[in-house]
Every structure is written in C-alpha cells, then in structure tokens.
Specification:
The protein has 108 residues and is mostly helical. The protein is 84% helix and 0% strand. The longest helix is centred in the last third of the chain and has 31 residues. The relative contact order is 0.18.
Length: 108
C-alpha cells in the first residue's frame, strides 16, 4: 500500500508545484500567495510520502487531497486534477490493502 500511495503523492506534488505559475499568470494571484500555497502543499505531499510508514503520513495524504481539490476554487482545472488524484489516492489505499491481504494469506 505504501508504494502505491507514495507514487500518487510524488506525482501530485509535481502537479501542484506546476500549478503555481498558472495561479500567478491566469488567476492573477499574488506570487507570494501562490508560491506559499502551492509549494507549501507540494512540500506537504512530499513530507506525507516520507511519513507513510505511520498513520500520520496517510492523514497528511488526505489533507493534501483536500487541498488539491480546494485549489479548484482559484484555478478551476484543479477541481478535475484534484479529484483525479483523490481518486488515485483512494485506489492506492484500497488496492494496497488488497495486495497486502493477499500476500499475508499466501505466506501465512
């Protein structure tokens, strides 16, 4: 489960970071605000990736999902991207649990 979730968060961090110039140029958000929000959320995604060995990482991952969807209020395309990554996040958790259960049943 951890490897799937870390892949989702790593790619999401990249997409969120790339939303920074979009917020500045298209949504007319002040650069300081766009940088702090987008890059802060991207760094949070990377921190969550590093903390996936504990439940704290997964909790932070959910916060990142909410934040990514919330960016859609400023940049509407982020509603689509945020919901897509939230879907990938849910799929990573569900499939990861199934894979772990199958491994445990096979070895146990």
């Amino acid at each position: 489960m951890r490897s799937l979730a870390s892949i989702v968060l790593a790619f999401e961090a990249l997409v969120i970071a790339l939303a920074t110039p979009v917020m500045i140029s298209i949504a007319d958000v002040r650069p300081a605000v766009a940088l702090s929000v987008c890059l802060g959320l991207a760094v949070l995604a990377l921190v969550a990736t590093g903390l996936l060995r504990s439940q704290v990482g997964y909790a932070l991952g959910w916060v990142v999902q909410v934040g990514a969807v919330g960016l859609g209020f400023v940049v509407p395309v982020m509603f689509v991207l945020g919901l897509a990554f939230a879907s990938f996040w849910v799929a990573a958790i569900v499939l990861g649990r199934r894979i772990e259960a199958a491994k445990q049943a096979h070895t146990g």
